[in-house]
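In this section we walk through a basic example: taking a raw amino acid sequence and producing a predicted 3D structure, encoded as discrete structure tokens. The instruction is simple. Fold the sequence below.
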Amino acid sequence: MPILPLTSPTYPNHTPSTPVNVSVSNRIPLIFRRLHRFQQMDFELALWQLSYLCLAPKRVYRNVYYHKQTKNTWARDDPAILILLFGCLFVAAMAWSMVYSHTFLYALKLAFVMILRDFLVVGVISATLLRLFANKVLLSPSSHASLTDTSVEWAYAFDVHTNAFFPLYLTLYIAQLLLLPIITKDKWVCILVGNTLYLAGFAQYIYGVYLGLTALPFLIRSEILLAPLLPLFASYIVSLLGFNIANHVLHIYFGS
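The resulting token sequence is shown next.
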């Protein structure tokens, strides 16, 4: 005769507790959940990726296949590249504030705006739109895709934004600062230089998004992602009639 019960007792109106906190945290991409684990971050790899995003961006996306094979996910799980980008934006905010003779408190506020709005908020919106568009328009028929590759992960779409953002950062946050005495003048040549900077920056972002989604083997017609280059170039041509983009953008950040 058994001493211990073979089945667990049941109680009326009792449901087993569910790990709510775990399920909620699992909805947050792993790269954000690991932001506080500095000792586990590979900053050397992140620096290599940032370098090659400017020199040979296709090499960065070759590592995506290796990451997929080893960790069964297309999205990166190491937030080191985010920490480096936060640092880059912080340095840019300090430099811009010094040029415009603003206080250190204003520089901190500007850094917060650049990190939160320019990178994170824009990244969340961009990743959401990219994921929806890719899964609705670019996804290949199920017969041509493996069972594990049925949709684009939101975390990977945010990775694409992160990778595409860095060349734009170098163009519009660093190069524009160095050329500030030129691009703020009202001469046509100065307008040409300044507006070309913005054309180059946003064209690099669009091309980076294209490369990121092209790297996924289960997506087709990725060249559609290059379509925004046409209105971008048309707007650039129109702006050369006398619209100084740099002056208007810098007025939003720093006022008159």
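Looking at the output, two observations stand out. The chain has eleven helices and no strands. Residues 1-18 have pLDDT under 50 and may be disordered. In the next section we compare this with other chains.
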